[in-house]
Amino acid sequence: MSLNKLDARIVAELQADGRLPVVDLGERIGLTSTPCARRVRQLEERGVIVGYTAIVDPVKLGLKVQAFIQVKLDRHTDENVALFEQALATLEQVVSCHATTGEYDFVLQVMAPDLDALSHLVLKQLLKIPGVRDVYSSIVLDTVKRPTRLPVGHLG
What we know:
single chain; 5 helices; four-stranded antiparallel sheet; alpha+beta; Alpha-Beta Plaits; 2 domains; Arc Repressor Mutant, subunit A
């Protein structure tokens, strides 16, 4: 899907402030509010913009421990992968999951209130999922850059 420069600018502005009124958005990119609103609606309908959300500080929610957990399955069958994905859907602490190349099959980003909760997640939940063979955890010491925006400079 190709976007033009105006679409890319709309996406960039909305990533910076998803609550930006259409009038202000239009002023920033050089459009009146009606064509700007139409472009935003088209971006939503095409699935470029999939939703709007608040960026929340995890520590203020009591989520003081973040970890990346690599998971290896014993067999990489469709059934094992499906069971794993179904189990993850029930684990709120897993905030993202990525299928990867390399030694491990998946990388999970996890947020927990403390080390006991992280330990419980790994030992009592992740390792109990059928087909999980191995997990390797890395605890985050500090977040240097938090992803809130996707790069759009290459568009248009």
